[in-house]
Predict the 3D structure of the following.
Amino acid sequence: MAYVAVKGGEAAISAAHSWLAEARRGARDVPALELAQIKEQLSRAVDRVMAEGALYDRDLAALAIAQAQGDLIEAAFLLRAYRTTLPRLIDTDPVDTGAMLISRRVSAIFKDLPGGQRLGPTTDYTHRLLDFSLETAGAAPAPVPAAAVESIEKMPRVTDLLGAESLIENDPSGDETPRDLTMEPVEHPAPRDVRLQGLARGDEGFLLALGYSTQRGYGQNHPFVGELRVGEVPVSIVPPELGFAIEIGDVMLTECQMVNQFGGSKTAPPQFTRGYGLCFGHADRKAMAMSLVDRAMRAAELGEDASAPAQSVEFVLSHCDNIEATGFVEHLKLPHHVDFQSELETIRAMRAEARETLKRAEALGALKRDETKRESETP
Amino acid sequence: MKGYNFAYLDEQTKRMIRRAILKAVAIPGHQIPFASREMPLPYGWGTGGIQVTSAIIGPDDVLKVIDQGADDTTNAVSIRGFFGRVAGVRTTTHTAEASVIQTRHRIPETLLRPDQILVYQVPQPEPLYKLEPSRAATRRRHALAEYGEMHVRLYEDITRFGRVATAYDHPVMVNQRYLMSPSPIPAFDNPKMHRMPALQLFGAGREKRIYAVPPYTDVRSLDFEDHPFHPGRAPHCCELCGSTTSYLDEIIIDDKGGKMFACSDTDYCESNRSDAA
């Protein structure tokens, strides 16, 4: 009987999982991908999965990418679902990006600056020509010695230089503990610490599109890249039993300080304002888009007109998480036949009523035609 | 399961969820924000219901999971398997045997008892979201019990279509105070919520809300005196058990317009058939 076709979910699920494993492995005559290869050679994918998965662990990110067949949102989801089970042992001290071991540092607002510009491993000036030499796994490229970094102290953040002249708004570090959006539900309007957390793990594509929209007039924004820096920063904790900070490792971060015009207000003189982007790994696009959206969301705080999507804190934060978004969009493929059945009955009833109305109207029309006919026939 | 706490969530998280549930029970129909966790199943698959079940289930509980009324739909199978794996609890397909029933889109046909808990998976806890997308604004509406817009919407349906066009997720008024989404159950199931002896808990994972209807609480579907609420079902009887009162699935059996109607509640249908045999 046809009804039997909807049964057997258990066997179907198990068979689907076997097929998935087979598809993941691909043709057996091709060597299986090693996680180290993903970690080393697909490092931008690893960076993205760590950022959106909100967990800094290159090995686990590589595992997630392999398990997800390279589907990066699925990989980020795997990482998140693992992260949520981990105990929170301690909070680190805030990292100091000013003390970053710089691999890349560019400023668009000064030709040169203390510490200099440093391109680093960027695709910015590559010509996007497919490199067919990569088709055959060839010899490693010849090493080129990197220019020596002057001491870190000589590479101050550009915004600190502007700040010295009070040309840019002050960004004081507060003493209050930032809220944690994974441990407390977000309430709107969300404060900036929560906003930045949401953006840091938000979907790169969504933030890119929203940041782009501000450049095209949906939310006024006159941005300059004050500085974009990529590099490793040390992470420290203060164990309560020790009472002093110890370094527990380094994380690679990308930080973008976007500098924006501001006309001033009754209480503040005209000065530049900040949009801030910070994310795991080397991710210019994500950090820059984040800084545009962060600045756009400050519209209300700065007394600007706030009517564009990127300026709505609730809109941005409610939709930037791709784990939430992909879940709800994709859940539409789950069975909905009970609801659909109720819609079917409603629409059938509405159509029957519409047909009746039409029939009555036609009958009434015919009656009227007959009457007019009779009247005209009456001498 | 090795490496995981009983029922997956750690005890701190369960405590946080239980606090939200207690608040929800204390204010029937009111949405309580909670720090929803990422679950190993995607948002939209029932993460809210799963978190609620995980927070309330104990080793002696017997769990039933249904989706679209059936125990054997893929997602129900998957969630039942999840709890079998991470909690090792006894599971059942029999409504009467279960102490906790997690559901998506249906209320069982069999009347529930005071010693049972019904956990709903909720995609969209905010009943006003189609009228006002900002949750900050809808919160204010709930605080002021300002629900006129919803009545206007129903009225507009009546003027345009001669009837309320909402066939599922028909909004309900709980305890004469809060407007509540009953989750996307068919309007047919709405009356079952009214003064139900069992505790009803609602979990919305992605939207991070929990709400509840305590036992024997008034739950009225929104309607008008001259246009009373109309719970609909297909005007047929079940071809498998002959029930004329249960909610029916319409199943297409060929490409020539052939179809059959059968109970959506598979356990109800099967027990009807075994009673007849």
Observations:
- Strands of chain A lie at 101-106, 223-237, 246-260, 273-280.
- Residues 1-6 of chain A have pLDDT under 50 and may be disordered.
- Chain A touches chain B through 49 residues (CB under 8 Å).
